[in-house]
């Protein structure tokens, strides 16, 4: 079986790490195409190196741009890649970024079977670019690899049950593996000055929190006013928007740093009192690592994390001070995100449906 994985943005590299590992030693040909959506060393190379992902077979170097220009450039370039070599049995696309949609569209128009990993997630917020990307990709794809039963139910509601298989969550594979590897490590030097259990980790990068200067200022003000130090790994979008609007990130409780390698992120969360984020992936990682999470949004694609108040939605930054620092709730029974072997289930499902 010939499978081409198309990735471009940081959360996709984490999912790819699990999938590439599961393909190792299977005899299948697994090729990796990187669109170049994320190109900074800390956003891309550091993830490939840190997670032991094989170097991409093809790097398109598309980079940043408006949604149309970025997605369109990827669509055209991917068509050349898919037509250039032996025809794949599957094009595998991941998550909800512009790279996901471009790869799905490009492959489907060439009649190459498309599998969507992390299918069926919904925020039901039609303003989010990620929601456009995931809905359109699910309806274009031939095989929908759902991480949870709830995601499968969302797909069934849209008439897509026949194309759906629940495989578990590949991000859980990686976070659980990484947790076991870093648990005994000391906090990294850049986190010096932070004491175990007495700081928060925060990330902000969504368009809905960063593009409107008033909203961004309110979010940053609320984080800076928290009663514990806040380790803030700064995403390039936050860095650029904050600089453009004169919003300082090095004040009050904030301890800004560049984007962290994956293992350092996991270690930082394990050492923290909890996290504040608008990232989809980090909400779930914090949940799986057993720390309380506060989400700076009105909805989540991962409603399982809300159980017992492990994750609390906080769309109004003015409310953040009341909820961000809280005790750990009662443990959740069961494993809504699978048993840490989802990537093997992905490979088996692709084999069965090739
Ligand atoms: C993208 C995804 C989002 C995902 C996120 C993870 C889309 C529409 N959004 O958002 O779903 O959660 O990745 O990080 O696909 N930039 C750099 N260096 C980089 C990458 C980006 O400087 O390596 C800057 C550029 O100024 C760019 C901005 O960040 O304009 C935004 O990057 P982009 O890839 O458009 O979207 P993200 O906000 O990263």
From TrEMBL:
Output the superkingdom of the source species: Bacteria
Q: Does the keyword Isomerase belong to this entry?
A: yes
Q: Which UniProt keywords apply?
A: Isomerase
**Boundaries of every UDP-N-acetylglucosamine 2-epimerase domain copy:** 28-351
Among InterPro entries, the record links this protein to: UDP_GlcNAc_Epimerase_2_dom (IPR003331), WecB-like (IPR029767)
Family indicated by similarity: Belongs to the UDP-N-acetylglucosamine 2-epimerase family.
What is the protein name for this chain? UDP-N-acetylglucosamine 2-epimerase (Non-hydrolyzing)
Gene name, per UniProt, is wecB
């Amino acid at each position: 079986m010939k499978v081409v994985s198309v990735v471009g943005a940081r959360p996709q590299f984490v999912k790819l790490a699990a999938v590439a590992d599961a393909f190792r030693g299977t005899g299948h040909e697994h090729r990796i195409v990187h669109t170049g959506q994320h190109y900074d060393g800390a956003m891309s190379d550091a993830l490939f190196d840190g997670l032991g992902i094989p170097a991409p077979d093809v790097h398109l170097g598309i980079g940043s741009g408006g949604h149309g220009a970025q997605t369109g450039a990827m669509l055209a370039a991917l068509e050349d890649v898919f037509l250039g070599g032996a025809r794949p049995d599957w094009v595998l696309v991941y998550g909800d970024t512009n790279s996901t949609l471009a790869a799905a569209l490009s492959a489907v128009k060439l009649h190459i079977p498309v599998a969507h990993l992390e299918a069926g997630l919904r925020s039901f917020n039609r303003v989010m670019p990620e929601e456009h990307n995931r809905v359109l990709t699910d309806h274009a794809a031939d095989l929908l690899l759902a991480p949870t039963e709830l995601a499968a139910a969302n797909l069934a509601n849209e008439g897509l049950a026949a194309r759906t298989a629940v495989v578990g969550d590949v991000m859980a594979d990686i976070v659980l593996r990484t947790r076991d590897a870093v648990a005994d490590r000391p906090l990294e030097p850049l986190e010096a000055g932070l004491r175990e259990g007495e700081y928060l980790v925060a990330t902000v990068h969504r368009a809905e929190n960063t593009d409107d200067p008033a909203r961004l200022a309110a979010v940053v003000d609320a984080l800076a006013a928290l009663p514990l130090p806040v380790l803030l790994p700064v995403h390039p979008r936050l860095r650029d928007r904050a600089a453009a609007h004169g919003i300082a990130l090095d004040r009050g409780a904030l301890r800004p740093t560049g984007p962290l390698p994956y293992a350092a992120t996991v270690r930082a969360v394990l050492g923290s009192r909890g996290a504040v984020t608008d990232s989809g992936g980090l909400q779930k990682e914090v949940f799986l690592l057993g720390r309380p999470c506060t989400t700076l949004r009105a909805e989540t694609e991962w409603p399982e994390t809300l159980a017992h108040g492990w994750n609390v939605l906080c769309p109004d930054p003015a409310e953040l001070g009341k909820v961000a620092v809280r005790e750990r709730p009662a443990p959740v029974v069961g494993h809504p995100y699978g048993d840490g072997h989802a990537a093997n289930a992905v490979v088996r499902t692709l084999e069965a449906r090739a």
